[in-house]
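Reviewer 2 asked us to include a model.

Predict the structure of this chain.
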Amino acid sequence: MAIPVVEPERYAEQLAAKRDYLETTFAAFQPPALEVFESPPGYYRQRCEFRIWHEDDDLYYAMFEVDAENPKNKRVVRLDQYTVASARINQLMPQLRAACLQSDELRRRLFQVEFLTTLSGEALVTLVYHRPLGDAWEQEARALEAALGIMIIGRSRKQRIVLTRDHVWERLEVDGRTLHYQQVENSFTQPNAHICQEMLSWAREVTGEQQEGTQRDLVELYCGNGNFTIALADNFRRVLATEISRTSVASANVNLDANGVTNAHIARMSAEEFSLALKGEKAGRRVAEMALEDYDFSTVLVDPPRAGLDEQSCEQLSEYAQIVYISCNPATLAENLTILTKTHRIERFALFDQFPFTNHCECGVLLQRRDG
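Predicted model (structure tokens):
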């Protein structure tokens, strides 16, 4: 893995290269003009993890540079600051390192540090160890919490010690509203909060355009902690969202309550299971709780992992009038569009620059069924 080198003066150049890549890759689908959403060129990532490297009496944050020709060869790169990470993480990095250098209890067999921060500066730090943690560690960790104004979790094999709480509260400004999101340690959240706000606003706009004064229902696959669910709920009569992770489902339900969303239901179910339930090929308590017969779906939103969707899932999506596809992998998106564009045309196409100075491209596509 290449460690991103942040060069703000070259941001426009790297963004143009991503734009050109997407326009070339998707030209065969004849999409409309690409909408491009810029990230801050630095200090954009709200969560990061670092290995802790010990050398004699010293320790420091480290990442590994992997040799592209021989992946087994890894070079340790020392990081005292990391301009990819949020300003809050960069503020905490030297403070936390100094505290560990001064305390044998905090530093001994410390293996990894994970930071989770918010736009408002809230910070949760997980310290991962290769040893059991006891009362002495907890006492010093609580003192460190107070000194740095953070929350700490200690992890080791078969141990997880939560000193204050296991989550932060992110507040995102979307179309004049403040949306509140519980983000739990060690679970997936969008790392670039600035771009996440743009993604949510774009999704609200493209789904709002499709309602034409008559609200129907939205089904959402891979909903995570309700990131899109919360933002889109008022564009639809009802929302049914599915997610396989138990932690994410619990967090999504907390987020529905926190934002006063009453027209959404979160079902703990994989996309594959949900597809079977829609066909009437799967029954059980969770299927009954969804009350599928009460929905009138006009739109499906899918935000799959990098592997994209299989052919069967694409065929299932093709049954909806509108498809909103959020993709973290243009290669699998292009494969899926080969199937989806047999029945749908691309109405909107967007690039969300989640990770500046990397090859990563996050895309958003709105598809409309050709028969209307």
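The longest strand covers residues 47-55. The two ends are 44 Å apart (CA to CA). We have added this to the supplementary material.
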